[in-house]
Amino acid sequence: MASPGPVVHRRRVAEELRRLRTEADRTLEEVADALLISTSKLSRLENAQGRPQPRDVRDLIRFYGIEGTKVAERLQQWTKAAQERGWWSDKNISTELSTHLAYEAEAAVARVYTIPMFPVLLQTPEYSRAYYREGEPSLSGKEIERYVELRKQRQKSLDKRPGQEALRLVAVVHESALYQVVGSHEVMREQFRHLIERSTAHNVELRVLPFTAPPLPTIGCTYGYFEFSEPLDHDVVDVETHAGIQHLDSADEVARYREHHDRLCEHALTTDQTRARLREVLAERYT
């Protein structure tokens, strides 16, 4: 089931609570015993797992002796904000996908790399539908339509978002995606036309990594690097496989993926060259 609440605020609360405990030189067990809560509950709070409860945060503020401080005020504000539910919270999706959508909804920039499919945020409904039908044969027709609608809702972030600017998308697509037929030639034809048009938006940068590019690190896996506008919020990476989504948030791992994505961009076609290549393949194979 989906895990509710804006993930950015949960992460802020978690990081601040970890910092306070470290500076107080206390173990998880010591703090949990003092507050009469389980160690596992405190661990979940410090790892942004689930919504932080105002009462628990209030008790921790008292325990660390920071009542009336700016730190306490920030913690209470973040805890309140973390109670809000994302639009996806009632969609009956996995926890991993829910967290992914939260990052996507709250990031300033999404830097993605996909192989051998086009990015979800740039897919037509027909392309998405054909992908699920052929790639996820266990899904019923009703389930497929639910996931297609979910993708359509996600794509709205490229146009507008409540209280923040539209998401900026920097997408690198392996050239194999241009030749991987999904659905039919008609589906591919409309998908190509959509990519050509959508990639002209000011906040969308679409680039093809050609077959001639060297075998760079991460060239064989699809992932999203989510960049946040506030210095307080650390960037994160989601690596996608058929088995699920792996969330990476350690500073070293995230930094490596940013370097890898930058290298992909260095070897990819420019945006104008990408549109030219799309037109060329469209004319050669799908018209």
UniProtKB/TrEMBL annotation:
Molecular function in Gene Ontology: DNA binding
Membrane-crossing residue ranges in chain numbering: none
One of the Pfam families matching this protein, by short name: HTH_31
InterPro entries in UniProt: Cro/C1-type_HTH (IPR001387), DUF5753 (IPR043917), Lambda_DNA-bd_dom_sf (IPR010982)
Gene3D superfamilies: lambda repressor-like DNA-binding domains
Top-level taxon: Bacteria
Protein name as annotated: Transcriptional regulator
Native source species: Prauserella muralis
